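Thread: "does anyone have the structure for this chain?"

Original post by V.I.:
We have the sequence but no experimental structure in hand. Need at least a predicted one for the grant figures.
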Amino acid sequence: MASVAWHLRLHELALNRTYGAAELSIEAINCLADAFTDSNEFDTRTLRNALIDLRFGQPSMAPILNICAEICHWLDNPDTERTGWINRMRRDLQEMKSNATNMTERMIDRFHKLEIDGDRFGFYSWSSTVATGVRSQAKRLAGKRAFVAQSNPGGEGKQTAEFLAKLGWQVWLVSDTQLA
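Reply from O.Q.:
Generated one for you, tokens below.
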């Protein structure tokens, strides 16, 4: 198994400030699926360290935290038979990937159908799904005003603010508590 390759990919995802939660989740699932390719060469310590990197690198990404928690639950269960556990994780990861992909497609479709009224909006963090929807209606939404939370500790709101400004929005980057 190329454990170094998937471990490095997870480390890169932990440092990634470009992807939104849906993209990060799908990429992390692909990475973790690679980790479960060969039950004879599976290294639980390497996996646990990779999950810790990912969890602390993306502390505001709930889907990532859920994936890490699911896998750690299985790692911590001493009664789990190794091959059965790995097969279960493969199935769970495939289901998570399918759900994340379907949810993203549904959200983009719903965004296209929205009637967006008003001239001020609030954004918290970065969402590639919302960015895709906003980009698809960029001409109609140009000139709108947005209050964007910094989204600490990761600071993903800065990416949202820059994205909206490039599309012609008037943007105010505010603290997380100011948006609430």
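V.I.: this helps a lot. Strands lie at 120-124, 145-149, 170-174.
O.Q.: and DSSP finds nine helices and three strands in the chain.
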